[in-house]
Design brief:
- By secondary structure, this protein is an alpha/beta fold.
- The chain has a single domain, classed as Alpha/Beta hydrolase fold, catalytic domain (Rossmann fold).
- It has nine helices and eight strands.
- α1 packs across α6 and α2 (82-92) packs across α9.
- The protein is globular.
- The termini are far apart.
């Protein structure tokens, strides 16, 4: 990666790091207590710290959901998803594992994919030690985390190691090969600009030859059969909406059970910044989908 690109990515980390931990006050769910602990998981790309959210009630051992935060593969702030993790643990009755995976430019592809997969495989295989039911597992995330979710599910299918009952794909970048300028929005100034998206892509996948790989651009894959059931969430005004909508249709055409919802009047990151009613509706949909998928 050119030195200038690394500097741009580092500047984004510094500028957006704190901003991305800000969640609309009416989406914080501070009335829901968070019962958390920390664990570290060894992976093929180094140890990973995870925050574990425990449900207050439900079956024991509870099912488990592995969450990957967003941030363009560059901003490493898992606490930005605290509100979602605490809400899902409380209302879906599952243990939630919030993963602090490595980010670029310090750790570009494939390190985040390796860590995401290895953590999920560890969670699936260590339920008795962790106090959850690893056979009832789901995986999901927002934006870059949703891209990693798709990669984890693909690797799990290829290796036959574990079978998620659900994948949650929320506002995902699924085509890293296309020029971001070709990704249109219905509003004049959407949250994601082409320049910002180019910085993210250059940092995460510095070798352009890797950008068409199915683990980087799941939307370009033509072998989607056998992937886990999916909840695909897209936002009407998001530059990433079209590729998310297309991925939902491609999964369905491949025989994968899909629930797809486009949230009107919303842009990227709306589950964190609002509109509040729309953000809550999306998080409620995640919770209800998890409850159904992970139930006995």
């Amino acid at each position: 990666m050119p030195f200038s690109s690394r500097l741009q990515a580092r500047a984004i980390q510094l500028l957006l790091g704190r901003v991305m931990t800000r969640v609309h006050e009416d989406l914080r769910f501070t009335e829901i207590p968070a019962y958390t602990e920390t664990l570290r998981v060894d992976t093929g790309a180094g140890p990973v710290t995870c925050t574990v959210y425990r449900p207050t009630a439900g079956t024991s051992p509870a099912p488990v959901y592995v969450n990957f935060h967003g941030g363009g593969f560059v901003v490493g702030r898992p606490e930005q998803d605290d509100h979602i993790c605490r809400y899902l643990a409380a209302t879906a009755g599952c243990v939630v594992i919030n993963v602090d995976y490595a980010v670029a430019p310090q750790r570009p592809y494939p390190a985040p994919v390796t860590q995401a997969y290895d953590v999920t495989a560890w969670v699936a295989g260590n339920g008795s030690a962790g106090g959850w039911d690893g056979s009832r597992l789901a995986v999901g995330g927002h934006s870059a985390g949703a891209n990693l979710t798709a990669a984890v599910c693909r690797l799990a299918r290829e290796r036959g190691t574990f079978t998620p009952r659900l994948q949650i794909i929320d506002s995902a970048p699924l085509d890293q090969q296309a020029d971001p300028a070709t990704k249109r929005s219905l509003v004049a100034k959407p949250l994601l600009s082409p320049q910002l998206m180019r910085i993210f892509t250059a940092a995460y996948v510095p070798d352009p030859a890797d950008r068409a790989h199915p683990l980087v651009s799941p939307a370009l894959a033509d072998d989607l059969a056998g992937l886990p059931p999916a909840l695909v969430i897209t936002a009407e005004n998001d530059r990433l909406r079209d590729e998310g909508d297309a991925y939902a249709k491609a999964l369905e055409a491949a025989g994968v059970p899909v629930t797809h919802r486009v949230f009107e009047g919303a842009d990227h990151y709306f589950t964190h910044t609002g509109p509040v009613t729309t953000g809550r509706a999306a998080i409620d949909l995640m919770a209800s989908s998890l409850r159904e998928a992970l139930s006995d």
